[in-house]
Amino acid sequence: MIPNFVSGTVWISDNLPILRGMNSESVDLIYLDPPFNSNRNYEAPIGSKAAGASFKDIWTLDDVDVHEHGELADRNPAAYAVIEAAKQAHGKGMMSYLIFMAVRLIEMQRILKPTGSIYLHCDPTASHYLKILMDGIFSRGGAVPQ
What we know:
single chain; alpha+beta; two-stranded antiparallel ribbon; 42% helix
């Protein structure tokens, strides 16, 4: 499909509203540098160009739309199962983080061309869960046909 955005555009901030506005199968490459679920708060150092900026990387159910979790059960049962397993093994913080990531990854799968690539930057905190989540979303058996 023809992209409805300028090639080479870089977006910064929450990508979900942007992803939902993009045409399906219109993107060749996605690089994603999301929060890591590090359970820390970050602040830019005084004197830097970003001084005063802060970022919270601690996740609770208040940080996500819990209705999206329920929708995942129908939209992508494999992703839902990964999130439920993570909740049992690691708690509601990891569950919240994975809900946040899953709804975005599902949109990325929709907009990515069949020949496209996605690169996800993460650290060991949730890398294993993200790998399984991506397997569920990007594999043929993960999503329910629409």
